[in-house]
TrEMBL record, chain A:
It comes from Engelhardtia mirabilis. Residues 33-318 form the Dehydrogenase E1 component domain. SUPFAM superfamilies: Thiamin diphosphate-binding fold (THDP-binding). GO terms for molecular function: branched-chain 2-oxo acid dehydrogenase activity. Gene3D superfamilies: 3.40.50.970. Keywords: Oxidoreductase, Thiamine pyrophosphate. Belongs to the BCKDHA family. CDD domains: TPP_E1_PDC_ADC_BCADC. InterPro entries: Alpha-ketoacid_DH_E1_comp, DH_E1, THDP-binding. GO terms for biological process: branched-chain amino acid catabolic process. This is 2-oxoisovalerate dehydrogenase subunit alpha. The keyword Ribosomal protein does not apply.
UniProtKB/TrEMBL annotation, chain B:
One of its GO terms (molecular function) is branched-chain 2-oxo acid dehydrogenase activity. Pfam families: Transket_pyr, Transketolase_C. Keywords: Oxidoreductase, Thiamine pyrophosphate. This is 2-oxoisovalerate dehydrogenase subunit beta. SMART domains: Transket_pyr. Residues 4-179 form the Transketolase-like pyrimidine-binding domain.
Length: 369, 324
């Protein structure tokens, strides 16, 4: 199977193998990447303003998300490893739910229980990551086994970062998937840094893609800042898995332009010159160059498109600012399908104190014992 | 009704659940054609095919991680961990993932699954084939922890666990696998996952126990009766969620309590029972709660019969508590 490393180079030139998508297609991808960036920038501003607690920025990774999202069907599963929120939006996670999750308010489908940046969307089969690195990899493999067993044609894309390739979940997941020929695609978003640890300190393998060989499955790597290369590789490997030819590993080489999170200062561990190099490889800049050459930039250029995206996002932020926090009862709900007696008793004891201090609201009442 | 050993009852429970529900899948190390190292899954691959009862690669975290994914996507996985001593590579998957999935997703995703594993001593298994790790798991909200002590309960609790909407750790007292026999109904029945079992009535002392310790406590109670001490025995059987009201009622009935388990004493399950009694019914108590437990040491090999609570040690605690 041939997987091309790159179709759109840094200067915006197309390779001779370019699959021939038209201006409308390229413009859509450009708009999607810019939308993800605008969401990210707005979230960082909200965090700096103290409105939300934490942001794990996707800046620089937009091509991995736009390229992957459009290669998947809504019925396919996407197992998030950390920074895939943008792809979730492009696959159908409503922006309102995305922002509600960042506010951890009562509109958050996860009921405000996880810290920011842990999105989920049942409608497009997108469970959230837990925070523990690599644990979702075996979940994706088991779920892929289930898809096969139940006779569906769903494919599971299992995302993780370069650091997760050192986890036991990576080893177990790749190994099980190879043995089971599970319909899944492992997607390693190699952004160069696992918080502060570079790839050179993560592995002695010649590449992350080479690791696939040990499990008897094919491994590939492409330029993760080229949305077309990401899309073509994802479409090919998803198609392969759907056809029953088994799992594959795809490494998307890219770069995390911001720190690991809003709490991280990357100047402590990496060289600014390296960051500058990657700024010029920016996936959105690359597409802007391409579209400029083709004379097909959208109306008002990048600035105009950006303004339209920001207006959409700001309207949703204003709506989410006024949503109520979660009711107190949610402290003991969803631990089990039904709230067991010992949790009812614990809550009722707590409620006595909360009521004494005027903290209980309507709906926070005691459970019957 | 058939007269079955506990391991046969487990096998019957699996077969019954697999017959009733095509989404039930059984897997783990050596559970396929071999039928498991204790033969709990004997004959299942032949009867249901290798897609429904199969061997996995040798990786506990892989087995449990994959089970979670299967459960999230429409199957009812029943994973076997060959010995409870080998479960710790999967601790992260059980504690951080399976047990927290419903909560962290606001109920959008759940993990209805069972992890079966033989636990406890009595087979000369040394440090790594004998441990009782229930306390680690009972400290995990979102998980259910179940321990049968009879063939009837083994089948009924197992079927209930497989049908349950939440993840269940099913601890099988391996010392009893072939030691006891009992009447087991044919076909499907369930035993409730939130009620204790009254084993023996008696007005002087209440003994709380579970798993292989139930038979030990029964032997001690028979001896105690010879000297006029009537002992009530309660099999806790569902450790999490625990039938707390049932425990308090039983403690109040005699005001004298002994708790027995194989696991080390410190922070063991007996500590929770003692604390619960102290909090909720200390005014009814006529004697301090006595604990009979394993030592706070690794599990020994040749001296295991001294490590494990036996009828003599339980009897001593019953007599001291009765006379206090």
């Amino acid at each position: 199977m041939q997987i091309h490393d790159c179709f759109v180079d840094q200067t915006g030139e197309l390779s001779p193998d370019f699959p021939g998508y038209d201006d409308a297609w390229l413009n859509e991808v450009f708009s999607e990447m810019l939308f993800v960036r605008c969401v990210d920038e707005r979230m960082l501003k909200l965090q700096r303003a103290g409105r939300i607690g934490f942001v794990g920025s996707m800046l620089g990774l937009e091509a991995t998300m736009a390229g992957a999202a459009r290669a998947m069907r809504p019925t396919d599963w996407m197992w998030s490893g950390l920074r895939e929120g943008g792809a979730a939006l492009l696959r159908g996670l409503p922006l309102s739910e995305y922002i509600a999750q960042m506010y951890c308010n009562s509109m958050d489908t996860a009921k405000g229980r996880q810290m920011c940046n842990h999105f989920q969307h049942k409608g497009t089969n997108y469970p959230s990551w837990s925070s523990v690195i690599g644990t979702q990899i075996t979940h994706g493999v088991g779920a892929a086994y289930a898809s096969k067993q139940r006779g569906t044609d769903e494919v599971h894309t299992i995302f993780f970062g370069d650091g997760a390739t050192s986890s036991s979940g990576f080893h177990s997941g790749m190994n099980f998937a190879g043995v089971w020929q599970a319909p899944c695609v492992f997607v390693c978003v190699d952004n160069g840094w696992a918080i502060s640890v570079p790839s050179s300190a993560q592995t002695a393998s010649v590449s992350y893609a080479a690791k696939a060989k040990a499990y008897g499955i094919p491994g590939f790597q492409v330029d993760g800042n080229d949305a077309v290369a990401v899309h073509e590789a994802m479409a090919a490997l998803i198609g392969r898995a759907r056809a029953g030819a088994g799992p594959a590993l795809l490494v998307l080489r890219t770069y995390r332009l911001m720190g690991h999170s809003s709490s991280d200062d990357p100047t402590k561990y990496r060289d600014e010159a390296e960051v500058e190099l990657w700024r010029d490889r920016d996936p959105i800049l690359r597409f802007e160059r391409l579209l400029t050459k083709r004379g097909s930039l959208p109306e008002g250029g990048l600035a105009g498109l950006r303004a339209r995206h920001e207006a959409t996002i700001d309207a949703e932020i204003h709506a989410q600012e006024i949503v109520d926090p979660m009711p107190l009862r949610s402290l003991v709900e969803d631990i089990y399908a039904e709230v067991p007696t010992h949790l009812r008793r614990q809550y009722n004891d707590f409620l006595r104190v909360a009521e004494k201090h005027g903290e209980a609201q309507k709906g926070d009442g005691a459970f019957p014992l | 009704m058939a007269n079955l050993t506990l391991i046969q009852a487990v096998n019957d429970g699996l077969r019954t659940a697999m017959s009733a529900d095509p989404t039930v899948c059984v897997f783990g190390e050596d559970v396929g054609p071999k039928g498991g190292v204790f033969l709990a899954t004997e004959g299942l691959t032949k009867e249901f095919g290798k897609n429904r009862c199969f061997d996995t690669p040798l990786s506990e975290d892989g087995i449990v991680g994959a089970a979670i994914g299967m459960a999230m996507n429409g199957l009812r996985p029943v994973a076997e961990i060959q010995f409870q001593d080998f479960i710790f590579p999967a601790f992260d998957q059980i504690v951080s993932e399976a047990a927290k999935l419903r909560y962290r997703s606001g109920g959008q995703y759940t993990a209805p699954m069972v992890i079966r594993t033989p636990f406890g001593g009595g087979i000369r298994g040394g440090l790594y084939h004998s441990q009782s790790g229930e306390a680690y798991f009972c400290h995990t909200p979102g998980l259910k922890v179940v321990v049968p002590s009879t063939p009837y309960d083994a089948k009924g609790l197992l079927i209930a666990s497989i049908q349950d909407p939440d993840p269940v750790l099913f601890l099988e007292p391996k010392a009893l696998y072939r030691k006891i026999k009992g009447e087991v109904p044919e076909g499907e029945y369930t035993v409730d996952l939130s009620t204790l079992r009254m084993v023996r009535e008696g007005g002087d002392v209440t003994v709380f126990c579970y798993g292989a310790m139930v038979a030990v406590c029964e032997e001690a109670a028979r001896t105690a009766a010879e000297s006029g001490i009537e002992t009530e025995i309660v099999d806790l059987r569902t450790l999490l969620p625990l039938d707390e009201d049932g425990v308090i009622e039983a403690a109040k009935r005699t005001g004298r309590v002994v708790v027995v388990h194989e696991a080390p004493r410190f922070c063991g399950f007996g500590a929770e029972i003692s604390a619960m009694i102290a909090e909720r019914c200390i005014e009814y108590m006529e004697a301090p709660v006595a604990r009979v437990a394993g030592f706070d040491t690794p599990f020994p090999n040749t001296l295991e019969h001294h490590y494990l609570p036996d009828a003599r040690r339980v009897l001593d605690a019953i007599e001291r508590t009765a006379r206090y």
